[in-house]
Design goal:
alpha/beta, Rossmann fold, Alpha-Beta Plaits, nine-stranded mixed sheet, two-stranded antiparallel ribbon, 10 helices
Length: about 300
Amino acid sequence: MEPIEVVVLSGKGGAGKTSVAASIAALLKDKVVSADCDVDAGNLHLLLHPVASKTIDFVSGAVAVVNQNSCTGCGKCIEHCAFDSITMSDDKKAFVHEVLCEGCRFCATVCPEKCITMETHHAGHLFVGSNGPMPVVWADLKGGEDNSGKLVAVVKKEARKEAQRTEREIVIIDGPPGIGCPVTSSLSGAGVVLMVMESTVSGYHDVLRIYDLLLHFKLPGILLINKSDLNNEITEQAKLWAAENGVPVVAEIPYSSLMRDAVMQGVPPVEMGGDIGEKFREVSEFIIEWIKTNR
């Protein structure tokens, strides 16, 4: 049986998305694989503390490299580069700025000395490991890279492999913030999306944007309202919207310093116990029941 993917999303950083994903994963650690698809600035591993057993280079396209010994400084590559990624060095040699190079190979084609070659571009790393019985997959994209959507797809693929290898039925995915390309990639193959909003005007607006994306891809969504007592009017407005659109509200979690303390200590908030722990147990139980009913 294929594992079902539970993707946790929020419209921006700071809404509590990673804390929610980490807490659910910690509670269901015997049943799930966890994956961090926020490859640009992932934090899930900072709360789950997995030990990496495998590191994989993330290769994304190719970049031009100039053989400085053969370059005559004719400037043809600079003239024909559509991305302005090549400049002339002080010693009159062509130099490729790797971050700007799009790997189109045109410079290598026009070079009369044939001193430009295309080399594999290493854009980051993928890590596969575990936190006790729970497999965890996460990644690190180098700064300035623009292939985060592609790396997200690789993370998801490895997470599915781990789920099949360990016979886990659920993959908990900590998704990227926003609604851009990395988010779209994280939604591929999703079974259900847990939308996390904080009770603010911008938080509510973000949920509406995410829900529009879910409608486009015909994906079911459920809602968790974090810091629900920050703005009671917004919380009620969000609950009314959810009821009108058939979106289950899995929990309302009031602001608590325990959430902050958990992040500072580098642990999932559920481990802080108290009412926060009970709330996350309710969320986990809801997700299990939802999967049983809707698989």
